[in-house]
Design goal:
The protein is an alpha/beta fold and about 350 residues long. It folds into 2 domains: about 180 residues, 3-Layer(aba) Sandwich (Rossmann fold); about 170 residues, 2-Layer Sandwich (Alpha-D-Glucose-1,6-Bisphosphate, Chain A, domain 4), CATH 3.30.530. Helices cover about 35% and strands about 20% of the residues. Strands 9-14-13-12-11-10 form a 6-stranded antiparallel β-sheet, with helices on one face. Strands 1-6 form a two-stranded parallel sheet. It has a two-stranded parallel sheet with strand order 2-5. Helix 2 packs across helix 4. The protein is globular and about 70 Å long. The mean pLDDT is about 85.
Length: about 350
């Protein structure tokens, strides 16, 4: 909350008219708060929760946020002013989760205890939902603060028709079910455990690295193979020994990594910059059939996974699959040799199945 206030104060220093809109939870597909509530409700039929779930909040639908943003643009009535924006419902976080369950046809039982510390609450969110620990800590701190609109002046000025909480959930799932989620908080660099400039990793190194490179003749058409490659990860999985990938995700989660729960935003499309399970997409060139991923899992080193469709001869093609690992110290080298037998098993099976096409 204080961070948002700091941004507000900094923006006000400019030589221009500033309009500040303050919102609580935004309900929409891809929103961090929405996805966390979704994780909790869909995974846990019974919840033992801290007392902050009784804090009042005034959620707002993403469509109404866009209505307000569009309405204040070049509108002199809103210059150099601050407005609260919210939906028509004032709810506790507990009621929001119960109503979310009703919207999804799920009955949920929530019991509140007064002894759960902020640290324990943060760990609870971290292990149950797709959030990272740093974000979980900040969310728990903010959830202690009541966030309810003090006035509705902007609604009167712009004459906005507000969408209630239940309808906002329905609209969000319409987007999800139609596979139309444009962006997700998971794609933000803050969703990783180690925020950094991933652009510097686009050039895959070769010196001082261990490389596992394999070639697979395409048995399906080039387009079918690219289609299959572009669906990798998320609910589709990694095509071979998915149980091992899940175990690696659990281990990563236990040691403070992102695990596999970020998934992917769209089942068919991949764009550079997106999160893809515990990878970051650096290059996604569908036309040439090149996909380059950088590992955001916890490792004693750095890792890249690259797929390329290459022309061979007589109109035939091959899938070139390369894992590159740059170790950090002795531990990094020990790690590579320890997992190399599994790499042979997993990478060989994965490459063959992708090369088979549809």
């Amino acid at each position: 909350m204080s961070s948002r206030k700091g941004v507000e104060e900094e923006l006000k220093k400019g030589n221009y008219a500033t309009t500040i809109l303050r919102a609580a939870i935004i309900v929409g597909s891809g929103s961090a708060s929405f996805e966390i509530i979704r994780d909790l409700v869909e995974k846990l039929p019974i919840m033992i929760t801290p007392k902050w779930v009784n804090t009042l909040c005034q959620p707002i639908a993403i469509r109404n946020v866009i209505d307000y943003l569009r309405g204040v643009l070049l509108n002199e009535k809103t210059y150099d002013d601050t407005f609260d924006i919210g939906g028509p419902d004032v709810l506790t976080y507990k009621q929001m989760m119960i109503d979310f369950g009703k919207a999804r046809g799920l009955k949920r039982f929530i019991y509140t205890i007064p002894v759960m510390t902020p640290r324990l609450s943060s760990y609870w969110l971290y292990f149950i939902t797709s959030t990272n620990y740093k974000l979980a800590v900040n969310l728990v701190k903010s959830m202690k603060v009541e966030v309810v609109c003090n006035d509705s002046r902007l609604q009167d000025i712009l004459n906005i028709d507000l969408i209630n909480y239940q309808d906002a959930i329905g609209n969000a799932f319409d987007k999800i079910e139609q596979n139309m989620v444009v962006s997700s908080w998971n794609d933000a660099l803050s969703s990783s455990t180690d925020e950094q400039d991933w652009n510097r990793h686009i050039q895959v190194p070769s010196y001082g690295c261990f490389i596992d490179k394999r070639s697979f003749a395409l048995k399906g058409s080039k387009q079918d193979v690219i289609d299959k490659l572009w669906r990798i990860g998320g609910n589709t999985g990694w095509y071979y020994a998915n149980w091992l990938w899940r175990i690696r995700g659990v281990i990563d989660r236990l040691i403070g990594g992102v695990g596999l729960r970020r998934g992917r935003a769209n089942i068919q499309k991949i764009s550079a910059g997106e999160a893809l399970d515990f990878w970051r997409v650096l290059v996604a060139d569908r036309e040439s059939g090149r996909l380059l991923l950088y590992a955001e899992m916890k490792l004693p080193g750095e890792a890249w996974l690259e797929f390329n469709i290459r022309d061979i001869e007589n109109g035939t093609h091959a899938l070139i699959q390369q894992a590159t690992y740059r170790p950090r110290g002795l531990l990094g080298r020990v790690y590579w040799y320890a997992v190399s037998p599994l790499h042979h098993f997993i990478f060989n099976g994965m490459g063959q199945r992708i090369a088979n096409g549809a």
